[in-house]
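This part of the workshop introduces the protein records we will be handling. Getting from the letters to the tokens is the skill we practise here. An example says more than a description, so a record of this kind follows:
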Amino acid sequence: MQILTQSPWSAQRFLLNELPALSATRPGVIVYRKNSPYTAFLLCSSVVAPSAWIGGFGAEWGEHQRLELYLQSSLTALYPMLRAIGVDHLYYSGYDAENDWLKALLLKQGFTQFEQLWSYDKYGVTIPAEGAQNVQIRPFQPETDMAGVCAVENAAFAPLWRHDAQEFAEIYQNNPFFVVAVQDDGVITGYQYSDVEGSIGFLIRIGVHPSLHGKGIGARLMRAAIEFFDRAGAVRILLNTEETNIHAHRLYEWFGFQRVAPDGFVIAKSLAEDSETATKITL
């Protein structure tokens, strides 16, 4: 927390209030220098084998000349930890491909470009379509809905984007709006969760079972999200999506979202290409 809040040499993809849970449940590394307190850290934010994501990396103020060494030593220690739990690819994403300093360091460590991310925003809370009327939108209930949401997740998203039951439980705790789309027979066909900060809404994820694309379920979930933002007083809505997700682009643009700069990115490293065991590095 000290590094994240006081050092300019820190990058994070999680909220500060999520740090205690992440540090207790996700693989991570602390770097110590001789005769000094901990100096750097590397922490995963998501681990759903075979994929894991770097959630944060940072070093104390004044340690920028050693950033590359700290990152190298942290990754060397992290790789065998991840392989032991079935992870074979490690990912990192950011929102500004041209100016992300951690991306530049990771590329030196063998990460490669994987995908571009597009940013969209929307001013106002207009709703151009009602969406499917044959589904019910209701709050996510972890005790009864988890299996259905995970089934949609596994069908709708590639392995690197998937959450599991543990992560969905955390998402439910940390996001004020998490709903599911349910058919008359009780089958969950989609889900959506969002957050809001002041006047800005963040549409984080919409998932619809791919067998039901084109049925208006995504539009129904989008409508529910915008209604939530309206109630919360948001006047601007932001989201990010994969460059290749043409189906989602059409939905967002239909609802009045416009693509904006800068582009985000995903970079990746195959752990099969880097099978050396962790070694102690003297700093």
Observations:
- The first strand starts at residue 10 and ends at 12.
- The first helix runs from residue 2 to 6.
- The chain has two domains: 2-117+267-273, 125-234.
- Confidence is low (pLDDT under 50) at residues 276-283.
